[in-house]
Design goal:
homodimer; 183 residues; mainly alpha; 2 domains; 8 helices; 66% helix; DNA-binding
Chain lengths: 183, 183
DNA sequence: CAATTAAACTGGACGATGTCCAGTTCAAGG
DNA sequence: CCTTGAACTGGACATCGTCCAGTTTAATTG
């Protein structure tokens, strides 16, 4: 049962990330610790550093991987405004799925990973097709992202009513989109 | 120079909070540690626990105290919608002042402290005077708070352009208010 | 004014965290 | 087959928040 030094355990980067995801789902953010992760993989804590640069890099990867679940609408949809609404709603729903991660999006700025970049790009394209002038697109995108992430943060805060928070998110999204297309 | 056990150091809860605020301003959130705080006050780390329940309570107090700087508009202003806009803009500006605290507002839900309650109450009164139906006020308030705090979080993230972020905040605030009064 | 009580502190420790420095062993490539 | 480099373990380091005794001082009581 005891593995000596040098013996392989067959770890993979994706295995580490999967275990981290599971650990996060089971025990929350405070439960996600390098040692607990190693324990779950039956490995010494240091072994993780062969597959991950450190905890922050681990978390960053988790954050962006999570965004992969966002439903990417067809960029040539008939109604681009409705498509943007769908995109943001899907983002909100996905974020709410992992409450512990939401504050981290604010802390680490949610724009680094490739999934975040992809979502931003399709959003820009949809906004352009909706008639938003090019120089106004950054402002519009900023507001929409702030709204989705901020609403998710409030929706997942303890003591919040999830359904009421979602209703508020949808209402605010409509108001923002109305203002954006009118500008 | 060395103080034996039992000798008083003359600490106060407000002295501890002030030192914590200064420490936060100088060294940021990672620099705000119980031990560093004690060092700054020339006191053993445990001494702090005579004036503060723990670090989370310390941070919560810091958060709410920070909101005291928000300019509270006269609740009987001529234009209630403009007053709400001023309130939210002042909140945004105050939040941006302490970048490290902003993510914590999302984490700990920004509604517990007395200052937060006070701001929420005046906001509700202004919205009512603006003609917003009572059952729609919670949704409106939720969206406005989300917008202010979320925009502040994005504005203070590293790599963000502060002036552009503020412009985006003002634009989004206008859109939200337009939608709120029209509902 | 004297005696008791409660609070403010110090000393020292505990458990836990992220991470690094050696070693050891296995798997693959020349 | 041999060599090289990566995957591991063992053990340690610094640091964190917090608690348990003690000790002394200030406030309160009779």
């Amino acid at each position: 049962m005891a593995r000596g030094p040098g013996t392989r355990a067959g770890l993979t980067r994706t295995a580490v990330l999967d275990a981290a995801r599971a650990l996060l789902a089971e025990d929350g953010l405070p439960g996600l610790t390098m040692r607990a992760l190693a324990r779950r993989l039956d490995v010494a804590p240091n072994a993780l550093y062969s597959h991950v640069a450190g905890k922050t890099e681990l978390v960053d990867a988790l954050l962006d991987d999570h965004l992969a679940a966002v439903h990417d609408p067809t960029p040539d949809a008939a109604d681009p405004v409705a498509a943007v609404a769908d995109l943001m709603t899907s983002t909100f729903d996905v974020l709410v799925t992992a409450p512990d991660l939401v504050p981290l999006y604010l802390q680490r700025r949610g724009a680094r990973g490739e999934n975040a970049i992809r979502l931003g790009a399709t959003m820009d394209a949809l906004l352009a097709r909706a008639g938003v002038p090019a120089e106004a697109i950054p402002t519009a995108r900023n507001n929409l992202i702030v709204h989705a992430v901020g609403a998710a943060a409030f929706a997942t805060a303890e003591g919040a009513d999830p359904t009421a928070a979602r209703h508020a998110f949808v209402a605010g999204l409509g108001w923002l989109l109305a203002g954006i297309v009118r500008s």
